[in-house]
Amino acid sequence: MSFNDLLNILNKELNGISGDQISKDIRNLFPVVLVDEFQDTDQQQYNIFKKIYMNQSKHIIFLIGDPKQSIYSFRGANIFTYLQASSEIKKCYTLKNNWRSSSTMVNSVNKLFSNRTNPFLFKNIIFRPIFYTIKKINYHLIINDKIKSGITFWYIDKEISINLYKKKIAHQCAYKICKLIVLGQKNKAFLYKNGKNKKITISDITILVRNRYESDILQKEFIKFNLPSIYLSKFDNIFETQEAKELFLLLKSILEPNKKKRIVNFLASKLFNINLSYFDNDKKKYFIKKIIYKFTKYNYIWKRKGILNMLETIFLKDFFLLQKNNSDYIKKKISNILYLGELIQKSCFNIKNNKIIVKWLLKQITYPNKDLLNKQNKLHNDINKIKIMTIHKAKGLQFPIVWLPFISSNTLDSINNNGIIFHNRKNFEINIDFKKKDENVKAFLEESLSENLRLLYVALTRSIFHCSIGISNIKFNSLKEQNLYLSYNTSLNFLIKNKNNTSNINLKKILNNLKNKDISIKNLKKKKIIKMNKIYKEEIKNKYLLKFKNQNFNYKNKILLSYSQIKKQQDTYLNNLNNNYKYKFLNFNKKNIKKSQFNFPIGKNIGIIIHSILEKLNFTKPIINNLIKKELMKKNINSSWNILLIKWLNNILQTPLGKNKIILSKISNENKKTEFEFFLSIKNFFSSEKFNNIINKYDFISNKLPKLNFQKIKGFLTGIIDLIFLWDKKYYIIDYKTNWLGYSNKYYQKKYLKKDICLNRYDVQYQIYTLALHKYLNYRIVNYNYENNFGGIIFLYIRGIHKKIKGGIWEIKPSYKLINELNKLFY
Prior knowledge:
Rossmann fold; PCRA, domain 4
């Protein structure tokens, strides 16, 4: 059942026998309703809201919209629905301020749309000059120490065909953008914001078009100037491309680099140009070994540094598989794959298992997720390329500098051989005329012109600082039939000309009438373009222009690191610290041995079981037997252990912990948080040397241990805290340890716990965990104070917990100086 089906059913039921009761139920559930972007609704949607909320004194509906921005008629939105609603609602309010654009940009739009009495053709769509805000008075585009106008018309001073017009304007657009970037590099072009200069970059520029065809014309010109660009089509989904499938096969091969057949099959894809001679009997074995070695290396990079770093190594550094194929086709594929890599890295930020990431990618390919298009759009803003997008897609967005190169070629809808659809101007009803009477054809064309005017308005108001527009006398030979009914072929012609002025002969004079400090007119001449092209070549020789090579992708590689990963890098020390500390475990599965917490099975799975149970427990209520059995069965542990485990866990919950005699069974669910995941942002690289200097100075355990050794960190340090809880107005951390230290309680006394903490470098763990909670509490608690609000951290060695015999509890509160210094380091 589709969304439209739901609307149809609701509308039908509201107008049926039970309609009044349904309306009442909806009003009771939603007494106040706010409908945003109301100009994009259709008649049926308005009828539904009208039926439920209109003339209801105790309920209210807010309709927020701008008729000047109604541009979605192709998907059912109806400007006449908005006009009908505005005529039926008594209280209407208009926003007066533009919070987006600079003073010059606002003034130029006001000037342009005030040139005619009814700039949107219909009298019901009123244009009121808007005001800029005080904050935007000193927002300017400055080039060579001069404030540029809000709008610049680039005018071709002769009548030309539409194809030639687009070619010339596209070239001018590419050149001017190139020139702007060059001046930006020389600090001669910048965006001025209330006393601060921001150097212009290529990502500040957006070009708005109507379709992919217009984008292709522009991109061909950009190639000549070495300008990178990306077309953001509303319907593009990167996961539906061939590159997404090829990336899936690549990642799967890297996950299991020893599977030779899979690798050989993968190398046959179009992505790689493998010389077939490598598969001869003499060379094949050596070649496959070499690839396995490379794939193993890539697997390692993926685990340590993330998927994007790995892909950059493969495609931008090694070139091993590409065989130095530098064709535009391959470059485009590599660009798409790197973009996919960044999107995957951002979407799978919290996923640490690379197999799950590959499954996630397969899911996106098989069942495309439209929500991910929003993430793609956000990601595009970070990419150092000129953005080209449709006007429809740009609605609601804003850009520093906008180009509308082809807006003056956007003609009216054509009159076809079928019937025409138009609206009655009095009652706003839709009509169809198959006979095509003159007055009805005129009404149809007027509606098309009005929508084009609204498209122009939306396009112009996307700009913050400046908008450049291409314009010319264009021959529209195919529109002779339309000229019989309407004098204006395009929205721009209608807007800049006064009433009854339909001639294109004096277009230059008409444009000059608009000229002031906020609107400038620039003439395009063939000689001038050739001269500019020479200047551009000289600047390339002088290396002033940015070089956008294939190797220069501006992707962010966000590294995720955890305490366990830091610990792994200390393996050499941990293995040699104390060989005598390696206990030889008994066979706990032997029969006739009395079950106890000391001979309870050991291993990673046991740790997972205990953590899972403690995470799910309500400490204040009795432990449920079925919960324990389920968790044991999940990991194939004999369920006969359940009785011992219940007794054991009850013991843990009842035992007073630490110097403050904390009893877990007295902590309600409201006062605790389990599995608290954190991400500590690291803005600047810091080394193990800096970290060592701090912990060795302020921590008595760290001071006695060898220095840590790890790679420079930047990105995020992540982890999961087992339990955070509130006790006596202070917050505490508990980390459950299932480590087996010995066969009796004596092995869980303080000196043995300290030995285990040193062996596993748990000092780093409690330092990081304390810092994470400290930052969190500082953000959440008013007048937060470390000494007053933070109680400490407890390592609970649960095998050693016993009511009568003290053991299994290690408690510490790192000094404020330590946490404060770490906080500075992580900032």
